Amino acid sequence: MLSFAEEIMLLLLDDRDGSFLPIPEWSMQCALAGSVLMDLALADRIDTDIDSLMLVDKKPTGDSLLDPTLERIAASSEVRGARYWVENTASYADEIREGALARLVQAGILNREEDRFLWVFRSRRYPTIDGTAEREVKLRIMGVLLSDEIPDPRDIVIICLCDSCGIFNEMLSSRELDRARGRIDQVRKLDLIGQAVAKSVWEIQASLAMAAHPVY
Amino acid sequence: MATRREIGYGLASGELWTDRQGQFMDIGESKEGAVFVLEPKGRLDSANARSFEERVLAAVEQGETALLIDFGGLDYISSAGLRVLLMGAKRLQQSGGTIALCTLSPSIREVFEISGFLTIFTVHDDRATALAAMG
Questions:
Q1: Which of B79, B90, B93 sits opposite A49 (nearest CB)?
Q2: Which residues is B15 bridged to in the sheet?
Q3: CB neighbourhood size of A113 (10 A)
Q4: B-chain residues within 8 Å CB-CB of A149?
Q5: Is B9 helix (H, G, I), strand (E, B) or coil?
Q6: In chain A, what is the greatest distance between 2 CA atoms, to the nearest angstrom?
Q7: Does the pLDDT of residue B14 top 50, yes or no?
Q8: Residue A42: CA atoms inside 13 Å, Cβ hemisphere, count?
Q9: Rounded to 5 degrees, what are φ and ψ at B28?
Q10: Which residues of chain B lie closer than 8 angstroms to A151, CB-CB?
């Protein structure tokens, strides 16, 4: 089973050429942070309520994508909210992203290609070799969005993460998105870490909008 | 006539449900007509969520098709508790059953409201109202 960070990376890549979809950097960082925290929650290492994120078990998971965050939570001298940990973990998003991509390459799901732009600037692409995992994630998501059945916790998480970083704008047509919007809004609320991710993304977007259009 | 089996701390109460960390979950259990009622007490969090999940899944496997969870004795619920509630409800829905909740304290209701669970579950004010609706 792929981690949430790996699933999110698959969804963030353009199927046509393996480049990254045009997602705001902060949204991607928060989504990767959320994916780690949600995996830790499903591994019974942390728990959350509407105010706090609590350490349940500091025993390492053995997963190199998750354990650095678990160590930081375990080392914290005070209990903080989920949002604090989303934003704290987001500052390590580059490591999480590189780790997730390396695993997907190692698993034979992606290929890694280096390009040069104007002979100077490097760009990296990750064309898909085996699209099975990505198709399965998309099928799971669509299965939830097109039904009114009670969703599985893993499906709730991936829908929260996709919505937070705007993947649905790329995955669905505007008509499909309009039709699915009510269901997305219903499902994304069902996870408290997912809500914290969405709030962090929304706040930075609001700050950027204010900076671009200041009210005098 | 309701039959009741207390599950919890007392040895005389019958059965103890423990999680992997060895903490107890006190879960009242009764049958009210066709409705199977579970009544978790105290806290429902990562320490005992699995105990509660096992109890809900056991009810589904016993063939119960109408499950009422009475939260009147519950003081606290965390994400882990919400998650197992969701899993239990999903299993029951897949087997053609129905689930409802009742007697949410203001603090538990607030958690359900914020987490959007009120849009997923049918919630009744008290057990009598719930049983009348489910019966």
A1: B79
A2: B7
A3: 12
A4: 90, 93
A5: coil
A6: 54
A7: no
A8: 18
A9: -75, 150
A10: 86, 90
CA distances from A30 to A107, A134, A198, B126 (A): 25, 21, 8, 40
Q: Which residue has the tokens 């056991």?
A: B58
Residue A163 C-beta-side C-alpha neighbours within 13 Å: 28
> Token pair of B30, please?
């009764």
pLDDT tier at A216, thresholds 50, 70, 90: low
Fill in the amino acid letter for A148.
D
Q: Which of B106, B102, B90 is nearest to B132 (CA)?
A: B102
B114's tokens: 């914020």
User: Hey, what amino acid is at B106?
Assistant: P
* pLDDT tens readout for residues B87-130: 999 999 999 999 999 999 999 999 999 999 999 999 999 999 99
CB environment B53-91: b (16+ within 10 A), e (fewer): bbbbeebbeeebebbbbbbeebeebbbbbbbbbbbbbbb
Which token pair is A188? 């994304």
ipTM of the complex: 0.87
Alpha-carbon span A90 to A165, nearest angstrom: 13
In terms of DSSP bridges, do strands B66-70 and B35-44 run parallel, antiparallel, or are they unpaired?
parallel
